[in-house]
Structure formats: structure tokens, C-alpha cells
Amino acid sequence: MSKMINGFILVDAPYSALNNAGTDAGDSTDNIVRVKYIQKGRDRYPYVSGQALRYWWRETLEEKFDWNLSPISRETKIAFTAANPIDYEDDDVFGYMRALKKKDGGTVTRISPLKNSPLVSIISQNPTNDFGVMARHEGDPVPYEHEFYSTVLKGIFSLDLNSIGVFSSVEKTGYKNMYPELEKIAEEKDLEKDENGNFILNKEVRLKRTTDVIQVLPYLQGGAKLTSHLTDVVPKFIVLCVVNGGNHIFMNIAEEKEGKPYINFGAIDEYIEEYNDIILTKVYIGVMEGFMNDLKSEIKDYYKNNDKIVIGTIKETVNNFSAELDGLM
Fold first, then answer.
1. Among candidates 166, 196, 199, which has minimal Cα distance to 181?
2. Tell me: the pLDDT tens digits for 217-267?
3. Does residue 96 carry a pLDDT above 90?
4. Is 259 left (phi over 0), alpha (psi -120 to 50) or beta?
5. Residue environment code for 84-97, b if the CB has 16+ CB neighbours within 10 A, otherwise e
6. Close Cβ partners of 24 (under 8 Å, ≥ 6 residues apart)
7. Pairing label, strands 254-257, 260-263
8. Which of 5, 10, 81, 236 has its CA 20 to 30 A from that of 182?
């Protein structure tokens, strides 16, 4: 089975419009910018799309850890990267699809080792409408509206340790990563080749790419409407561990309780107990002081005698967790 990093995060969005849906055809005017939301019955849950989160992640990796991002080419209605996971870290971690000519290898694809959910509001709410005007010109001011919300967003992600830096030639969608030109590059750079024909980067490179993905989280940045709704999108609560398998065990540990976000410690305990046989590391929990009132002190008090759980700040947590990964690569 694959060794998977399981990550759960909470992002504080106290006055935000981090991912917008544009205008709504049903609106009476055409200058209202709506936020994205999921509707369950009459309840609305603002969200940030999984694609937007991945964009923030990729861009922050470039800025913080100097990742060499794969160049993008465009042809009419399609766009694609170089499809070279050897030289470009993001092609390795975020995956790709590229349609080459048949003589050059045909269509190549790579399933992303990094998978993530959207960031979805824990609390149901109706976004607030804000009114503004453009009045720096002669004549009548031009009115406009936009929505924003105050909530805590939750999301999960996984990172497949068995796939980072491992490139396959299997004739199967998502697994045919290689093509003749890329195989030539792999041979020139003396990549290891296993019994299944997979090309493998050396452990040092694989470990760095993996730890970069985790250690960049305390620096995560991005989002819409930052000029007037500046939001720090660094996770304020995070749970990390490695499991032997593909399922995400911490998906349901946060919920709404009396109109406020709530961490269910009992659920965390149950998941750790239920899946103790596949959890390969300690469970690391990071929380920033001041987030959700006394959450940090509550967690420390609740888990003070539990040697399976390590509590810290967000940076302490990602760094301590990353230190465990060397023995799992």
C-alpha cells in the first residue's frame, strides 16, 4: 500500500472573499460580484475551490523555496506544461497531461501525488453585501457591490510518498508519465530504474520535494479581494501524520456547534484508535495562539498525557513532522 501524508487544515477568514464566482445572471444589475458557495437545503457554505488552493500552494513554493516551475505553452484552446517531472518540481508534485504526437510518445499524463479538497466553510451563512462607488472621475459615481463572509474554512490534503520522484511508463491513463525524450533525460541524469521499469530520482531530491510541500504551509499566500479584504490564508490549525493507505482519516474532526467552529477531540481520539494499525508516525497538531479563543490551551490540556500526539505552533508542527519523513522515503 502507499504511504500517504494525511493533512487537515483550518484557515481563518474573518472578513474575506477569497474565491469569487463572478456575476450572477439572475441579478438585477451586472456589477455585483458573488462569492463561491455550496448550498445544502437552505444553508450556504462559502468555499475556496481546490484549484485555487493548489494555485496558492504552487506559487508560494516558487517564491519561498525557489521551485523551478514548469513553463506553460498554449495552443488554441488548450494549455500544457513541459511534462518534465525530472527538471520541474511542480510537474512531479502537481501532475500533468500533455498530448504529444504519436511518434514522440503520444499522450502522457501523471496523477498528482498531491491531492486536496476545496476549503469549505464550517459555518453556514449568508454572505454580506458591500456597496462601493468609483468616484475619482468627472460625472456621476459608478456604484458596485461585492460579497464577503466571516468564517473558518476547513480542508484536507494527502501526499503520496511512494509517487514523489517516481515516474512510470505503464500504458495506462495517469501512469504513462514517460516518453522517449524524457527517458533520454532520465538516462543522461543517471536516474535509478527499478524492476518495474520506473525511473526514480535520488532520495535526497525526493525528500526535499516532499518536505518543501509541507514546510511551505506556514507561508501560504493568495486569494481574491486582498486589496480591500486582506486575509492571512496560512492555516491556523493543522493535523499531520503518515498512514499506510489512501483514505483520509481526519476528514470529519471539525464541525459547527452553536453557530461556531468546533474541534471534536473525541473524533480525533477515535480515528487514532481505529486506525492505529496503519498510522506510521506520531500525530502532529499545530495551532496558533489566539485562534478560536482558548483552543491551543484546550488541546494541550486534553492531550498532555498522550505520547502519540505532538502539539506545537504551525511552524513547529510542520518542521517536527518533516523530520520523521526521512525514514519513510
1. 199
2. 999 999 988 888 899 999 999 999 999 987 899 999 999 999 899 999 999
3. yes
4. left
5. bbbebbbbbbbbbe
6. 32, 34
7. antiparallel
8. 5
